[in-house]
């Protein structure tokens, strides 16, 4: 049976090499003035890849365990934003006014929870005061380039490597690395609020199991602070975050839909680029959190 399956898959792969992945397809991309190299960039190949029979086969195959998984990188942005829009008190704060196209690409921003927040000045106005919480719905509806839909696309451009960024080779690897690192704090701020975080963990476990993954090693740099439901202030550490994550994993394993899921654990990491002081502080925070969990 295994030999027969191998022969079938090999034939499908051979067929798609001559129908999907051809020079003619690469040439068609040139009409969009995109340089194509022998190793096609993932962003250019992704949509076509997901329509292939080989992709459908790989999707259904059991994976066993996923041992390197960045928590913030597992966020389904459309789902998380929809949850944020439905969650009372979720706001947007920025490091300053965002009024120009350049500022939309560079000015820092994040999602926070705030009680009774209201702002007469949107973050898109020159009169906006840095770090002032603006209700998420208000920020989205007042987005100057397309309202809510344009706002969502803007968020997407800030938390992913866009097609234009993929092909901007002249900017060098350091620029793309800076963009990559800027995505995680934004995504973390979107999910590190208890009402959204609990749903996110439960959904993540379901998605992994549906994809044939029965066990996962998650990891995070524990850079973005966590906030419990309805709390105005951030938690002083990540004890409750890990506690809530453990709760949801065990609930999923105990459910009918999650009975085949083996489990998950969190690997505490940090970033060398942060510097010695911050790495030491992260290490101390890890041990203090461990003591509380014990």
Describe this entry's structure for a reader.
With 294 residues, this protein is mainly alpha-helical. It has 3 domains: 2-61, no CATH class; 66-73 and 191-293, Rossmann fold, CATH 3.40.50; 77-188, no CATH class. The chain is 50% helix and 11% strand. The protein has a 3-stranded parallel beta sheet with strand order 1-5-6, with helices on one face. A 3-stranded antiparallel beta sheet has the order 3-2-4. Strand 5 (213-220), helix 12 and strand 6 (263-268) form a beta-alpha-beta unit. Helix 11 crosses helix 12. The model has no long low-confidence stretch (mean pLDDT 89).
Which structural traits does this protein have?
13 helices; 3-stranded parallel β-sheet; Rossmann fold; 294 residues; 3 domains; single chain; mainly alpha
Q: Element order, helices and strands?
A: HHHHEHEHEEHHHHHEHEH
Report the portion of residues in β strands. Answer: 5-15%
**What structural category arises from helix and sheet content?**
mainly alpha
Q: What is the number of helices?
A: 13
pLDDT < 50 runs, ≥5 residues: none
Number of strands: 6
What is the radius of gyration computed over CA atoms, rounded to a whole number of angstroms?
A: 22 Å
């Amino acid at each position: 049976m295994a030999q027969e399956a191998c022969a079938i898959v090999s034939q499908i792969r051979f067929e798609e090499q001559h129908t999907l992945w051809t020079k003619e397809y690469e040439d068609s991309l040139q009409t969009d003035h995109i340089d194509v190299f022998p190793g096609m960039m993932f962003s250019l190949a992704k949509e076509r890849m997901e329509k292939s029979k080989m992709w459908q086969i790989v999707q259904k195959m059991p994976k066993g365990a996923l041992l390197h998984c960045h928590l913030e990188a597992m966020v389904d942005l459309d789902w998380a934003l929809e949850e944020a829009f439905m969650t009372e008190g979720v706001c947007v704060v920025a490091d300053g006014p965002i009024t120009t196209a350049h500022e939309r690409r560079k000015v820092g921003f994040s999602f926070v929870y705030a009680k009774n927040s209201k702002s007469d000045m949107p973050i898109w106005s020159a009169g906006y005061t840095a770090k002032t919480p603006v209700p998420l719905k208000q920020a989205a509806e007042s987005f100057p380039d397309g309202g809510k839909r344009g706002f969502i696309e803007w968020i997407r451009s800030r938390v992913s490597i866009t097609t234009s960024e993929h092909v901007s080779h002249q900017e060098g690897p350091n620029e793309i690395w800076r963009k990559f690192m800027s995505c995680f704090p934004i995504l973390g701020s979107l999910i590190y609020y208890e009402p959204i975080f609990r749903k996110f963990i439960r959904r993540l476990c379901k998605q992994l199991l549906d994809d044939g993954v029965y066990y996962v090693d998650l990891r995070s740099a524990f850079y973005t602070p966590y906030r419990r439901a309805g709390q105005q202030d951030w938690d002083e550490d990540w004890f409750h975050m890990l506690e809530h994550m453990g709760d949801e994993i065990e609930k999923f394993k105990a459910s009918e839909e999650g009975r085949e899921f083996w489990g998950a654990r969190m690997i505490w990491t940090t970033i060398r680029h942060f510097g010695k002081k911050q790495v030491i502080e992260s290490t101390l925070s890890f041990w203090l959190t461990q003591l509380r969990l014990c």
